[in-house]
Amino acid sequence: MSSASLIEPQHVRDAHDIAAGMPAPRTGASRQLARVQPPPLSPRALEERRLIHRQDSVRVQADAFRDLRTRLLNLRGNQNFITLVAPVGRACGGSFVARNLALAFAFDEAKTALLVDCDALHPSQHLALAAGSDNCGLMDYLDGSVDDLGDIQYATGIPRLQLIPNGSVREIAGEYFTSTRARTMIDSLRSDDPNRYVILDAPSALNSPDARILSDLADVVVLVAGYGKVTLEAIDKAAANFDPAKLAGIVFNDNH
């Protein structure tokens, strides 16, 4: 994404008058993070995984994601919030935007970020971040196979950024996302650390009902449109899946 621009839909602008360090210790989560601490990723390793960093070689991308982070903070104020990142369709780069938005939050030494891979059929964040590769993650927690929420949170080698991978692949995941366990999990992740910003990486809004279902767990929805990949009609159709009050805007992504 050489440029990440948050474009607020007209109905969002009209309704809202929109212009344009580690977390505090937690018992289970802290033990898990202490057990597995990967080495810090070098700038080269970050670039190979298409992750932004502070060096000049990716300054344009880093600044674009910082701007996106700032716009969301301006929308929501100082209280932490849950952001759902949903691509319009496949190949729009939603997972790319989700992990780099999480990184942009983690850049701030006063904040932490937790990226949750909610694409039950095509998970990818465990590969991009080289964390949670033992296949224990979100779906395993939601189906009760894992009891301790701390056991599915992984350090990433990037300061203040943690990952909950998807874990076991599921053809159908909606019933898990509507469960009381999912709601309780989100409430715990939000309240455990007031400086933590949670980013949910969702599957395509047009190819699965899961993105719409997951939006009930989120405070803010960011829609990702692959530049030249989807039509305006498809964008409108995808946007219609979400509560207009939650839809912060659309990111046009040209890095897939």
- Tally of helical runs: 11
Report the count of strand segments.
8
How confident overall, as mean pLDDT?
84
Distance between the termini: 7 Å
SSE series: EHHHHEHEHHEEHHEHEHE
Please estimate the helix content: 25-40%
Structural class: alpha/beta
Order of strands across the main sheet? 1-8-7-2-6-3-5-4
Q: Give the biggest sheet.
A: 8 strands, mixed
Shape: globular
- Kindly provide the name of the CATH class: Alpha Beta
Description:
The protein is an alpha/beta fold and 256 residues long. It has a single domain, classed as Rossmann fold (3-Layer(aba) Sandwich), CATH 3.40.50.300. The chain contains 11 helices and 8 strands. It has helices at residues 10-16, 27-35, 43-48, 59-76, 94-107, 125-128, 138-142, 174-177, 180-192, 210-215, 232-239, and strands spanning 6-7, 82-87, 112-117, 154-155, 161-164, 196-201, 220-226, 247-253. An 8-stranded mixed sheet has the order 1-8-7-2-6-3-5-4, sandwiched between helices. The longest helix is centred in the N-terminal third of the chain and has 18 residues, at 59-76. The chain starts with 5 loop residues before the first strand and ends with a strand. The relative contact order is 0.23. Mean pLDDT is 84; it is low at 10-35.
